[in-house]
Amino acid sequence: MINTNKERLLFDDEIFNKDKKDNDGVLSEASQIGDICEQQFGLDAMKRGYEVFMPVGHATKVDVAIKKHGNNFVSVQIKKAYYNNSGYVIHCGSTAGRKSKGGQGQKYTYGDFDVLGGYLVEADIWVFLDIHSIVAGPEKYYWKPAMGKPENNWDIFEGY
């Protein structure tokens, strides 16, 4: 459930991204849902034996970094998938500044992160895409069970 207690979420400092806040200076519901998805990923990764590291703030495209003993860090960008008539949609680009750019986000590229994790909240399913798939593919990734695409493909992290 989203916390709607606006007094608890108010920030006075102007360094926070205004696009992530509504007109009252409160974190938007979309931002809160994104934070919840990041926390869910961290919990799910810990259940699978990963150490989880989360940056403070949203100044980087990496939402979470995970690591298993003896392996390298893997940087992860988390997206909440949304449902439309075609199935679930995962944006493969940054939504920052979308309003100021006429509704266009910026597609992710090499060096931004290693893996994009799309969370299908209603189905409690993770869909993971490596950065090579993101760079070579379209700005939106479509998923539904009948398509036969990977789901809960945590093995993607073993290659790092």
Polypeptide structure, described:
- There is one protein chain.
- The protein is of the alpha+beta class and 160 residues long.
- The protein is built from three helices and ten strands; from the N terminus they run ααβββββββββαβ.
- The strands form three sheets. A five-stranded mixed sheet has the order 1-2-3-8-9. A three-stranded antiparallel sheet has the order 4-5-10, with no helix packed on it.
Walk me through the topology.
Layout: H1 6-9, H2 29-47, E1 51-53, E2 64-67, E3 74-80, E4 82-84, E5 87-91, E6 93-94, E7 106-107, E8 115-120, E9 125-130, H3 131-136, E10 140-143
Parallel strand pairs: 3-8
Antiparallel strand pairs: 1-2, 2-3, 4-5, 5-10, 6-7, 8-9
Briefly summarize what is shown.
With 160 residues, the protein is of the alpha+beta class. It has 3 helices and 10 strands, in the order H-H-E-E-E-E-E-E-E-E-E-H-E.
Shape annotation: globular
Low-confidence stretches: 1-21
For this structure, the quaternary state is single chain
Radius of gyration: 16 Å
| Binned strand content | 25-35%
The helical percent reads 10-25%
Q: Name the strands of the widest sheet in spatial order.
A: 1-2-3-8-9
Output the structural class. Answer: alpha+beta
Largest sheet, in brief, is: 5 strands, mixed
In whole angstroms, how far apart are the ends? Answer: 34 Å
Number of extended strands: 10
Give me the number of helical elements: 3
What string gives the helices and strands in order? HHEEEEEEEEEHE
Mean of the pLDDT scores?
81
List key phrases describing it.
5-stranded mixed sheet; 3 helices; 26% strand; globular
